[in-house]
Specification:
22 helices, about 475 residues, globular, mainly alpha, about 0% strand
């Protein structure tokens, strides 16, 4: 095949300067447009492997959500049975994010060395190794060891799943399919919130093994990321994987040529180190990714998710009703966001989401303020519920999903591992800080905590409006060339 011949001989048809020009923006006459439309129609009929690969990958996302959602419905039962203090349980909740930091640091290196599938396999094994000590726990040490192992697996999952999906998806489906990652995270969190009200905390730990086992089995039946295979020089496997994902009767020559050209050009650049990410060509992408990850976490979501039951109790509202409502709304809005991702655009969803987070935080903060002042006792719980619903609905509408989509799109493949690890690490540092401090902040001032989150989300609106580009409807190569030469 001509593509394989080009790769074997190191033929690169693009210079560095040509990166400034969209790689797939060739002019076409009417007949070519008709052929492209016909090809697109055929490809839509042959995408079962693409959807299967996405399903298998997002089992890791569901596992991610299960790990996140575990601590909220089990807090009272675990503390009572094992006689844990608030500080000990706060450590149990937050040590997950500490393990995730370690996983995030290593995620890019692992995914680059052994492939996206290999990284997902390692993640699943660490998660299995984490649930078992929690199930058999007799004290805080066993809980913390298991939770740390879960965190390590989550740290890798949080990077490799959106990257894998972005690399296998065609541009017309990339936003929606990458959004499924966060849909499944939300499903994991929400389902754990719901079933955690009826299952014991030990049984809930066993349920966490199920998505890991499905993932490990499914990885035997799906192809590796074609872009990773091209980067590693596995020419035949690259073409075979891309053909398998697009359908056996689909012409992949143009897409394959674009990928090869870009990979070969990037390969000629020096191997990047962490410090190289601060060079001008990568700096804007880094600022965008790191900024979005920080605002996603510092807006308060991890603390709210870990301790949502306690938030409702503090506000004077039945925890079970509030938690189930929270969980159901999260799933519905996240699915809607995934549908709209390739239609409404990334920037629009981020701006709407951040504005809603501000409103939600103000409502919850006002509710807590009224309760502290012993004013409007019938209104305060209602405000808390409305505020929490607005908060989680707004987060699920954009700020929960979109930062991961954008992170998977904006970095060139030669720095994707390093940059992705750094971005994911920053996300988990923020998550750890918020999850550990949340209970203490609530003890200091329940209303002050949410007013602080509101102020941070106002800054997030300004950040998105000023710096974040629109990436919908463009190939990964087009996005990266445009951002890094701007």
């Amino acid at each position: 095949m001509g593509i394989e011949h080009d790769m074997e001989n190191g033929d690169s048809r693009l210079s560095l300067e040509e990166l400034r020009v969209p790689l797939t923006g060739h002019s076409k006459d009417e007949s070519t447009g008709e052929e492209e439309a016909a090809s697109g129609k055929r490809s839509k009929e042959c995408r079962w492997m693409l959807y299967l690969s996405t399903f298998v990958a997002v089992c890791g996302s569901f596992e991610f959500g299960a790990c996140m959602g575990y601590s909220s419905p089990t807090q009272s039962a675990i503390r009572k049975e094992l006689n844990l203090s608030l500080a000990e349980y706060s450590l149990f909740g937050s040590i997950l994010t500490f393990g995730a930091m370690i996983g995030a640091i290593m995620s890019g290196l692992i995914a680059d060395l052994i492939g996206r599938k290999g990284a997902m396999r390692i993640s699943a094994i660490f998660c299995i190794a984490g649930w078992l000590p929690i199930y058999f726990a007799k004290g805080a040490l066993s809980l913390d060891i298991g939770r740390m192992s879960l965190g390590y697996g989550m740290g890798i999952f949080s990077y490799v799943v959106p990257v894998f999906i972005a690399e296998i998806a065609p541009k017309d489906l990339r936003g929606g399919l990458t959004s499924v990652n966060m849909v499944m995270v939300c499903c994991g969190i929400s389902i754990y919130f719901i079933i955690g009200t009826v299952l014991t905390w030990r049984t809930l730990a066993l349920v966490g093994l199920v998505p890991c086992l499905i993932l490990l089995l499914g990885l035997f039946f799906i192809p590796e990321s074609p872009r990773w295979l091209a980067k590693m020089g596995h020419q035949k496997d690259f073409v075979a994987a891309l053909q398998q994902l697009r359908g056996k009767d689909v012409d992949i020559s143009e897409e394959a040529a674009d990928i090869v050209d870009y990979v070969e050009t990037i390969r000629k650049l020096p191997k990047p180190k962490m410090v190289d990410l601060f060079q001008r060509r990568y700096l804007r992408s880094l600022i965008i990714a790191v900024g979005l990850m920080l605002f996603q976490q510092l807006g308060g979501i991890t603390g709210v998710s870990f301790y949502v039951s306690e938030v409702f109790v503090t506000a004077g509202f039945p925890a079970a009703v509030g938690t189930v409502s929270y969980a159901c709304l999260q799933i519905i809005i996240t699915i809607l966001c995934a549908i709209l991702m390739d239609k409404a655009g990334r920037r629009f969803l981020l701006l709407v989401s951040a504005a809603g987070l501000v409103i939600g935080c103000i409502l919850v903060g006002t509710s807590f303020y009224l309760k502290v002042q012993e004013s409007a006792p019938t209104v305060a719980p209602l405000l808390a519920v409305i505020g929490m619903m607005v908060y989680i609905g707004s987060f699920s509408a954009g700020m929960g999903v979109t930062p991961w989509v954008i992170m998977s799109e904006i970095f060139p493949i030669n720095v994707k591992g390093t940059a992705g690890s750094l971005s994911t690490l920053v996300n988990w540092i923020g998550a750890w800080a918020v999850s550990y401090a949340f209970n203490f902040l609530m003890s200091w001032s329940s209303y002050g905590t949410f007013f602080i989150f509101a102020a941070i989300n106002v800054i997030a609106i300004l950040f998105v409006a000023k710096l974040v580009p629109e990436t919908k409807g463009r190939t990964l190569e087009q996005i990266q060339a445009a951002i890094n030469t701007a």
